[in-house]
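Reader question, answered in our methods column.
A reader sent in the components of a multi-part assembly and asked whether the whole thing could be modeled at once rather than chain by chain. We filled in our standard form and ran it. Here is what they sent:
COMPLEX SIZE: two components
ENTRIES:
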Amino acid sequence: AQKITQTQPGMFVQEKEAVTLDCTYDTSDQSYGLFWYKQPSSGEMIFLIYQGSYDEQNATEGRYSLNFQKARKSANLVISASQLGDSAMYFCAMREGTGTYKYIFGTGTRLKVLA
Amino acid sequence: DAGVTQSPTHLIKTRGQHVTLRCSPISGHKSVSWYQQVLGQGPQFIFQYYEKEERGRGNFPDRFSARQFPNYSSELNVNALLLGDSALYLCASSLVPGGSGNTIYFGEGSWLTVV
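And here is the structure of the entire assembly that came back:
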């Protein structure tokens, strides 16, 4: 069964420093998508970055990059130059196959950026 | 452009009652998904609808039902509410159900408290 594991319940980072949030996944599918979402206290899930299983290059979106290691089944999120507004819950998610939008989420990592 | 809109934002219900949650997708999006997020957990998939038809269902009891209207808006209904139904209910929209690279976009959610 597909599964997403986030082993860091909470993380602290100093403002302007980089931080890596860990995510490992388990699937028997050859085609899948990996996503990271940010959830502030308001509750809205904000899409950050996407990586397809067949993409050879790591995805980047501004200050966000995804360190995709397919053999290790890991999809870590790297946030560069952290800002106070980055403080939030971060969820790693996997989409099963390409014919559905059923997403499986991890339990999340709470990031706190320190001034 | 308006994002995914959900209503109500907060509500309190009594055990045994019924609740209806509403969602309007992003303009042009034809697929709507519903997720339940219990405190401290990642979202759990409940339903996906596309062109008014159910395209996927998660592991939820029959007390949970949904539908999609011709304008692509959607309702989630929960009957015979239990204390354990207290959660944030997230609606997400997407252009189509599947497709590599396409992601889903979430609303701010409806916070349901069952007392």
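What stands out: Chain A has a mean pLDDT of 93. The first strand of chain A starts at residue 3 and ends at 5.
Send us your own complexes using the same form.
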